[in-house]
Amino acid sequence: MRTHLEHPFSEAMAQTISLRVHQLRGEVAVVASQADAAIALCEEHEFVHYIAMARILRGWARAQQGEFEKGIAEILGGLEKERATGASLFESYSLGLLADACLKNKRYDQAFEFLRQVTLDDENTERFYAAEIYRLLGETYLQSRQNFDQVQQYFSKGLKLATRTECQML
Predict the structure, then answer these.
(1) What integer pLDDT is reported at residue 30 of this predicted model?
(2) pLDDT at 152
(3) Chain centroid offset of residue 44 CA
(4) Fewest CB atoms less than 10 Å from the CB: which of 22, 46, 76, 119?
(5) Domain that holds residue 106
C-alpha cells in the first residue's frame, strides 16, 4: 500500500467517482466496503466536496443494508456539507439516494418529501439522474399503493427521458 500519493486530489476524485459508479450499478456491498477509504483520503486533504459525496454514498449503502437511521443521517449530513460550500453539485442525485433509501425501508412519506425537493427542468445540471427520479416517483406511488395513475405517468416520463438521453449519447 502506498504511503504517499503523488496526486491526492486525483486519487480522491477517482475513489469518489468509483463509489458513484458502484452505486449506480446497485453494488451496495462494494460501496460500503470502499467508502471509508475514500472518506479518510478526502478528510486528510480537506477535499470538502468529495468528503460530502463519499459520506452520502456510504450513507446510502448503510441504509440499503438495514442501518436506515444511520444511513439517512449520513446522507443528510453529506448533503448539508455540500450545501455549506455554496454549491449544489449532485443535489438531485443525493435527494434521489435519500428517496431510494426510504423506499427500500418502506418510508414512503419520507421518500415523497425528498422527491418533492428535486428540481426537474431543462436547467437542471443533473439531467443524468432525471429518469431515475421519475422511476423513484413511480415506484414510491406503486409501493405505497397511492394514485396508480401517477405510477403510469412517472414510469412513462422516466422511460421516455431515458430513451431520449440514450439516443443523445450515441
Answers:
(1) 96
(2) 85
(3) 23
(4) 46
(5) 91-170
